[in-house]
Specification:
The chain is mostly beta strands. It is about 0% helix and about 60% strand. The chain is built from no helices and 11 strands. The chain is elongated and about 50 Å long.
Length: about 120
């Protein structure tokens, strides 16, 4: 299963960006889709996840500012509002589920850079 992410860029503090990530390949089911980020010199951390049942989970640092959503065509979005300097990071999408050949997958996108700067 392959993931293609897009939507990163340069934004001023207080601004907004929307990230997208589309999963393709031999997908039978998607159990959970999510976004993680890694800032310079720091470990990768969870930003937000959404299960196939609709349950969402957000890092406390982004709750109320970021929204994760998914469409019917295996694309997950991350709407980021009220961006702060500390949101600067490479954002990675992650998708987990079952392939058409009944094996589990845990796929990562290539990363998209979000820079919050004035």
């Amino acid at each position: 299963v392959q993931l293609q992410a897009s939507g990163g860029g340069l934004v001023q503090p207080g601004g907004s960006l929307r990230l997208s990530c589309t999963a393709s390949g031999s997908i039978f089911s998607i159990d959970i889709m999510g976004w993680y980020r890694q800032a310079p010199g720091k470990q990768r951390e969870l930003v937000a996840t959404k299960t196939s049942g609709g349950t969402t989970n957000y890092a406390s640092s982004v709750r109320g500012r970021f929204t994760i959503s998914r469409d019917v065509r295996n694309t997950v979005y991350l709407q980021m509002n009220s961006l702060k300097f500390e949101d600067t990071a490479v954002y990675y999408c992650n998708v987990r589920g079952v392939t058409a050949s009944d094996s589990q997958y845990d796929s990562w996108g290539q990363g998209t850079l979000v820079t919050v700067s004035s």
